[in-house]
Amino acid sequence: xxxxxxxxxxxxxxxxxxxxxxxxxxxxxxxxxxxxxxxxxxxxxxxxxxxxxxxxxxxxxxxxxxxxxxxxxxxxxxxxxxxxxxxxxxxxxxxxxxxxxxxxxxxxxxxxxxxxxxxxxxxxxxxxxxxxxxxxxxxxxxxxxxxxxxxxxxxxxxxxxxxxxxxxxxxxxxxxxxxxxxxxxxxxxxxxxxxxxxxxxxxxxxxxxxxxxxxxxxxxxxxxxxxxxxxxxxxxxxxxxxxxxxxxxxxxxxxxxxxxxxxxxxxxxxxxxxxxxxxxxxxxxxxxxxxxxxxxxxxxxxxxxxxxxxxxxxxxxxxxxxxxxxxxxxxxxx
Length: 334
Known about the structure:
334 residues; 2 domains; alpha/beta; Rossmann fold; globular; 15 strands; ornithine cyclodeaminase, domain 1; single chain
């Protein structure tokens, strides 16, 4: 079994490669080729741990290797006082034929990469081709990863960053100037309105239980990626955003029906019906549904995350690690 640490994964998995892996994951989800049981959440201590298994078929669409595994991700709000990240995770891959453990890897960096790559894939299909200004709401690991993903699929010339703490926004802006030297303007802004007004792409990457920007501030033709809220009682987008979005795309209809407060809340309030969900992202990848159809429409991608994404990203990381001989190999049966 190969052990891959955070630094190993950063060597083995680029954003562009992860976006391509997500195309396979979402295609399998929407075609029915992937088996993804509903994740199980167990409360423990001051947080919750989510157990997320999945199996990706060795047959097309878009994947040639079968993948079986499990992610365990834990969210503990008190970890800051313990000197630990709020989100910790691990991913285990096993051989689909024998059940032999193949790899154990850091799940936090993998989650950040695959989540942002999913948004990058959605942005490829749903944002205007000439999108140049990206607003990042949230200055944590997802905010950083989303900035990288947006630049991987569009010619971004300006990144605006906003969070609850100005120092965090400024720190991320400073970091991204080094990571993205080709982007001429990267700056922290004072509030969400300053970030969203005139932006072509808006990425909501927070743990806020309530909307993080005013939908009236969206410009015609804007695209929104909302990935932070993952319970039926929390949301990052407001009613006005839902009203104005003419094309709502989700990672999985089955999952968002249970977990996505961004859509569950307005559906329960009668603001929209489930038929307003235009497509799963995989349907667009497979060509069954079209992406953006006009320069002026506002589009929304809502994702709560899916274990198929984790397995696709983990398989891509393991394949590259084997090529580069990266990581520590151990024998569990030794």
